[in-house]
Structures are given as C-alpha cells and as structure tokens.
Amino acid sequence: MWIAIVAVVVIIILWVIMSYNGLIRRKLKTENAWGQIDVQLQRRFDLIPNLVNSVKGYMEHEKDVLTKVTELRTAWAGAHSIGEKVELDNQLTGALKTIMAVSENYPDLKANQNFSELQEELRNTENKISYSRQFYNDSVTMYNTALSVFPTNIIASMFGFKPQTLFVVTDNEARNNVKVDFGK
Question: How far apart are CA 25 and CA 90, in angstroms?
C-alpha cells in the first residue's frame, strides 16, 4: 500500500518537474525567437542611413518620407517593449515600401549601383524579418497553447507563467499596397 502511494507521489512530482521544464523551454524559445527578430530589425535599421543617403539626391520632393524613416529609426532605438518595437516596425515597413515604390519613378536612381545593392540587402533583410516573425509567432502559439491546455495550465498558473503576445500588424495602412501618385 505504501509503495503505491509513494509511486503515485513520485509520478506526480516527476510530472510537475517535466511540465515546468517544458514550459520554461517554450518560454525561452519565444524569447530567442524575439531576439532573432530584434537582430534582423537592427540590421534593417543599420541599412537605412545608407539607403536614405543614396536616395536623397534623387527624391527631393519626397523629403517627408525620408524624414519619417529617419524619425522612426531614431524612435526604434529608444523603444523598450516588444509592443513599441512592433508598432514602430509596422510604420517603418510602410515607409520603406513607399521609398521602394517611389524609386521606380527615378530611372537614374534605379540604375545607381549603390542603390541597387542597398535595395537587394534590404529585400534580403525583409525576407529574414518575415521568416523571423513567423518563427516567433509559431513559438508564441506553442507556448500559449501549453499554458492553456490541461493539465499544464495547472502548473502554469501555479508558477505564474504569463502568455506572450503575437507579432501582428496593427497599422491597417501597412496591410495595403503603396499607392504613388505624381499627378498632384
């Protein structure tokens, strides 16, 4: 009889330990995934001054777009929370789309070797950011699911695990295609 009780207690303790460790692994995976996004966003922000400088001479009447990109880059450097960085990233994505769309109307700019290389670097970085966002959201979904399903939800609530936030586009403008109109 005592052996059965001890066995049940040991099994419960092992289950708690395994569930706790599984939640910790998932949480660390989401933090790592956010770190990968952060690295790619930093890479993008490092490319922006070069892109802006190569575009400045060609796009005199698009100065407001270039100013906005510079302001967003500065604001991102001062952002502290994931939510702030997500919002600034969404705004910057829209502004960069505008620069790329406007650049189509400047043949000399499109032919500029430096601009072409920067554009390709930015395109590669955007692809990496997109992949990193997807990986982050997958990791967060797995973690949040583990927090919600029985019986690990018991362990999660006992040890104070909190759900993570998905990376979502909050700016409806960022969801739309960029429209460039020189008829004004």
Answer: 29
